[in-house]
């Protein structure tokens, strides 16, 4: 948003809650559209200024949910009529919060949601209608999104809409961009690991997870009873672990046999067995599919007693281990748990994982000193389906980025997450999951880079950079941008211009968060200035900041930035001293002043960072310095010699006298010889 | 380093030992002069007595003042030459040589010529010293001027003094502290 638009925004608020968005759109702050809300991201009515009959849905994203602004281009490229059509997106200063928010503007004319959360469907579609209006369009959407490697992560009946007033048309799937995947999903729509994790710690969304959510959504749409009534999210997850998702969701509900077949395929907890798009398409084509068998839990030969409870299954034991870490450590120490795992559990994978965990824990020192680490590792070994649990927080291996972003946004400490990374917990978790070899290697490589980054102490490194590396959608979390949404080159310039106008800025604009953000998103540009930005010399830092800002101005073609230019102008007095020639320095100073008046950072930087001139100036200065030193030596020598006027030049005087005397003597001798030879007698 | 110092000491010792001794060439020359002097004994006697001021000048001139003795010797020799020719135009024997030596007028002429040498040395030394001193002063002024120009062009950094030091220099009180 430009400064002009912001002025218009505040004016519009005073006029009655209409905020301009872009050139032609306006958002009516007084007209809420709650059915399109996505968690804390709230929906409002928007319209085209040129034709007010054209209605749009504006979803004002809550920054705390980390809107997926990087996915906008990909989403816009999806040519699927069953997806809400994205008309535009961008940053807007929202008058109701006084902060900048990322706004997604979707095409209007969308009907009500299929089923409100916690309610039952009111429409009585028959089998063919459900197939053609609901399942088929959903499969098309998932297929298209999968082709573009984009997960939805917000598939639920309350986010699936009728296509207008006429309900006998294919559905439209709602927004998925205003928050990270899974963040706004009720836990029932999530697989076990995602449901247990913190909302922002749920990580990316895979096609398989969207298919699972589709299965739950279908069941919710078809159900006539609430099988989960009275159950908390924790109870639902436990039930899913104990009975499997299919039995938990479907329960005793009576569905048509064909739907049961589909649901069994979609709701299978094992990712490898769960139906994929091809299976669903075959099912849609009417092929007779063999539904996957319900997964059978392997019961132990004898129970394991923990905190007075008998456990026959390692997966449920894993759930409760965190309740008493001291007892767990004791049971590991006296090998009680090891014996149970080896002798009573028939699953070799669990035995293998458990043994590896024991080795890791032993290498980390005394087990009593690393209780939390032991709980995490043993939990993961006994039930690889669970998310990582460490010191009270739960997250998936790819969800650590979201948690880092959440902590940075809220201004909370990131030290616990740093600890998680340094202890290789995400690496161990990913190695236990059913992911492809490529995916696993890519993740481990990324975590390795993060650990190396954490150990670096220069600006733009550390946990800040990890945050942006692991959470690509994170805006810049610099404390300077508290009420702003800074996510790209242009927004950083405009934000700094606004802050400079308020007089809140110094010439060292870029703090460690900004540097980390741009090192991640614009590494090539940052490489050119990072040396100066990390310098302990304040003037070099200022020069680096100016060079960076100028490069962005050049790239984004923002015409004038007079406030930033003024801030720089006030701090460059020492920077000019990079040039030694006084006359040249003055010329540069004058040139910079002229450029600053126009707000042209590129021009200012060009004057200050002219390499050829700088190099020539330095060479000439070196020569002048040498000349000065030689002259000083000569002066000191003269000073020393001339100190005694009586003796100075005496030796030379004697020499000169000798020369004169010998010449005179030679003349006299010659004359005497000539006189003698001529017979003339002098005496 | 220690070895080098020892080497230097070894080199210096023989030099000190030979300091008062004449070199082989000098000895050879001395023998030649003595032989020539014996051959031309009357002339040698005249020159011996005539060149007494030069000998005195050589003996009393300190180190580095060989030039002064040279000046005196040149004029002293110029004073002796006409009387050597006079001796040669006479019998060129001891008696003639003795006559010249004992003639006060002749000897006065010879010694005044030596004194003239002293005068040349005194005048020339004064003139040269003043000239060179003035030349040095002018050169110092030119150096200062050039240095000021360099400072004007390049700032005080050209002096090679660190910037902080320059600032501190500028902040001295009236007593220079």
Walkthrough of the structure:
The complex is a heterodimer of chains A (683) and B (177). Chain A is α+β, with helices and mostly antiparallel strands and 683 residues long. Chain A is built from 29 helices and 12 strands. In chain A, the strands form 4 sheets. A 6-stranded antiparallel beta sheet of chain A has the order 1-2-3-4-6-5. Chain A has a two-stranded antiparallel sheet with strand order 7-8. In chain A, helix 19 packs parallel to helix 21. The longest helix of chain A is centred in the C-terminal third of the chain and has 31 residues. Chain A starts with a helix and ends in a 5-residue tail after the last helix. The relative contact order of chain A is 0.06. Chain B starts with a helix and ends in a 7-residue tail after the last helix. In chain B, 81% of the residues lie in helices and 0% in strands. Chain B has 8 helices and no strands. With 177 residues, chain B is mainly α. In chain B, helix 3 packs across helix 5, helix 3 runs parallel beside helix 6 and helix 4 runs antiparallel to helix 5. Chain B has one domain.
List key phrases describing it:
heterodimer; A: 683 residues; alpha+beta; six-stranded antiparallel sheet; two-stranded antiparallel sheet; 9% strand; elongated; B: 177 residues; mainly alpha; 8 helices; disordered N terminus
């Amino acid at each position: 948003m430009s400064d002009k638009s912001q002025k218009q925004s505040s004016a519009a608020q005073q006029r009655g809650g209409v905020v301009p968005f872009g050139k032609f759109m306006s958002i009516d702050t007084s007209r809420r559209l709650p059915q399109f809300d996505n968690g804390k991201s709230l929906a409002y009515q928007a319209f085209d200024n040129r034709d007010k009959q054209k209605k749009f849905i504006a979803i004002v994203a809550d920054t705390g949910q980390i809107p997926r602004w990087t996915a906008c281009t990909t989403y816009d490229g999806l040519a699927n009529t069953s997806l809400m059509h994205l008309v535009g997106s961008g940053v807007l200063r929202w008058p109701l919060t006084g902060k900048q928010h990322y706004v997604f503007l979707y095409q209007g004319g969308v009907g009500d949601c299929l089923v409100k959360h916690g309610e039952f469907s009111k429409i009585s579609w028959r089998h063919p209608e459900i197939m053609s209006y609901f399942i088929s369009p959903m499969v098309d959407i998932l297929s298209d999104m999968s082709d573009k490697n984009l997960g939805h992560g917000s598939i639920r009946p309350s986010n699936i809409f009728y296509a207008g007033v006429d309900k006998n048309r294919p559905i439209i799937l709602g927004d998925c961009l205003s928050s990270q995947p899974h963040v706004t999903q009720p836990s029932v729509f999530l697989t076990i690991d995602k449901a247990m994790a913190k909302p922002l710690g749920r990580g990316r969304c895979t096609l398989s997870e969207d298919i699972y959510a589709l299965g739950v959504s279908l069941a919710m749409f078809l159900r006539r009873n609430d099988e989960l009534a009275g159950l908390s999210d924790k109870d639902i997850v436990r039930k899913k672990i104990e009975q499997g998702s299919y039995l938990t969701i479907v329960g005793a509900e009576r569905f048509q046999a064909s739907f049961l077949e589909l649901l069994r395929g979609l709701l299978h907890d094992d990712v490898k067995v769960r139906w994929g798009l091809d299976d669903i398409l075959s099912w849609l084509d009417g092929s007779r599919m063999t539904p996957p068998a319900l997964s059978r839990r392997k019961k132990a030969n004898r129970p394991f007693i923990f905190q007075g409870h008998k456990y026959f299954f390692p997966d449920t034991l894993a759930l409760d281990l965190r309740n008493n870490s001291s007892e767990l450590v004791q049971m590991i120490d006296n090998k009680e748990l090891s014996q149970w795992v080896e002798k009573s559990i028939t699953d070799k994978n669990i035995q293998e994982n458990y043994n590896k965990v024991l080795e890791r824990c032993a290498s980390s020192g005394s087990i009593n000193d690393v209780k939390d680490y032991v709980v995490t590792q043993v939990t993961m070994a006994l039930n690889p389906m669970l998310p990582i649990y460490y010191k009270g927080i739960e997250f998936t291996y790819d969800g650590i980025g979201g948690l880092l972003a959440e902590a940075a946004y809220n201004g909370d400490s990131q030290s616990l997450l740093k600890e998680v990374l340094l202890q290789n917990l995400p690496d161990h978790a990913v190695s236990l999951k059913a992911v492809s070899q490529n995916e696993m290697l890519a993740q481990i490589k990324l975590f390795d880079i993060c650990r190396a980054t954490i150990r670096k102490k220069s600006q733009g490194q550390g946990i800040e950079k990890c945050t942006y590396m692991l959470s690509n959608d994170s805006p810049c979390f610099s404390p300077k941008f508290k009420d702003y949404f800074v996510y790209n080159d242009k927004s950083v310039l405009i934000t700094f211009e606004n802050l400079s106008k308020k007089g809140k800025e110094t010439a060292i604009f870029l703090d460690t968060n900004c540097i980390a953000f741009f090192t991640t998103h614009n590494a090539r540009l940052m490489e050119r200035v990072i040396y100066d930005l990390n310098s302990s010399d304040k003037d070099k830092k200022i020069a680096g900041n100016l060079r960076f800002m100028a490069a962005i101005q050049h790239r984004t073609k923002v015409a004038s930035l007079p406030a930033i230019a003024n801030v720089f102008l006030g701090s460059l007095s020492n920077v000019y001293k990079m040039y030694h020639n006084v006359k040249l320095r003055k010329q540069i100073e004058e040139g910079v002043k002229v450029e600053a008046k126009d707000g042209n950072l590129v021009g200012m930087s060009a004057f200050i960072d002219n390499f050829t001139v700088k190099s020539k100036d330095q060479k000439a200065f070196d020569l002048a310095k040498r000349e000065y030193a030689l002259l000083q030596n000569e002066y000191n020598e003269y000073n020393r010699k001339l100190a005694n006027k009586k003796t100075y030049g005496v030796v030379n005087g004697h020499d000169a006298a000798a020369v004169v005397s010998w010449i005179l003597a030679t003349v006299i001798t010659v004359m005497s010889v000539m006189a003698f030879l001529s017979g003339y007698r002098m005496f | 380093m220690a070895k080098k110092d020892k080497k230097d000491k070894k080199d210096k010792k023989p030099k000190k030992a030979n300091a008062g001794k004449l070199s082989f060439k000098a000895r050879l020359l001395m023998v030649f002069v003595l032989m020539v002097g014996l051959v031309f004994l009357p002339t040698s006697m005249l020159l011996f007595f005539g060149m007494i001021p030069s000998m005195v000048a050589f003996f009393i001139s300190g180190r580095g003042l060989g030039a002064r003795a040279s000046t005196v010797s040149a004029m002293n020799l110029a004073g002796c030459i006409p009387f050597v020719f006079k001796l040669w135009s006479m019998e060129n024997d001891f008696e003639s040589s003795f006559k010249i030596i004992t003639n006060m007028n002749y000897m006065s002429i010879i010694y005044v010529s030596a004194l003239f040498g002293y005068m040349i040395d005194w005048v020339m030394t004064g003139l040269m010293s003043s000239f060179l001193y003035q030349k040095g002063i002018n050169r110092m002024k030119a150096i200062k001027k050039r240095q000021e120009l360099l400072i004007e062009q390049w700032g005080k950094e050209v002096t090679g003094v660190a910037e902080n030091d320059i600032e501190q220099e500028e902040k001295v009180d009236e007593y220079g502290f």
